[in-house]
Specification:
6 helices; globular; 73% helix; 110 residues; Helix Hairpins
Length: 110
């Protein structure tokens, strides 16, 4: 039914909201508040998704997951990271196991 096409359309809509009035657009309010606010909101929604996942109400989990995806896209937009670039990263990881993919990442020196 839905696929990345829906998320791509949503990412484009979020991008277009940059120029909207914050009085009329929640997305514009978030973007105008900056990446820190967008990150905080994404984190809140992610926690709500985890809480919903621990419960037994599938509709609550679906709703929270949708909120989380929306807020992730807003966060990406706030940092000028194109959703298509994220999809390319995921595409590059296809065909290898998660263990292989993780091992191929550059090691942090911290």
């Amino acid at each position: 039914m839905s696929d990345t096409h829906t998320l791509t359309k949503l990412a484009a809509l979020i991008h277009s909201r940059r120029s909207d009035s914050a009085d009329k657009s929640y997305t514009a309010q978030l973007l105008n508040a900056g990446p820190e606010r967008c990150a905080k909101k994404f984190g809140e929604e992610a926690v709500e998704t985890v809480i919903a996942a621990l419960g037994s109400d599938a509709s609550a989990l679906r709703a929270e997951a949708a909120d989380t995806l929306y807020h992730l896209l807003v966060l990406l937009e706030s940092r000028h990271v194109a959703f298509d670039d994220v999809l390319r990263v995921l595409e590059g990881r296809m065909g290898m196991s998660g263990i292989e993919e993780k091992a191929s990442r550059p090691q942090s020196t911290s």
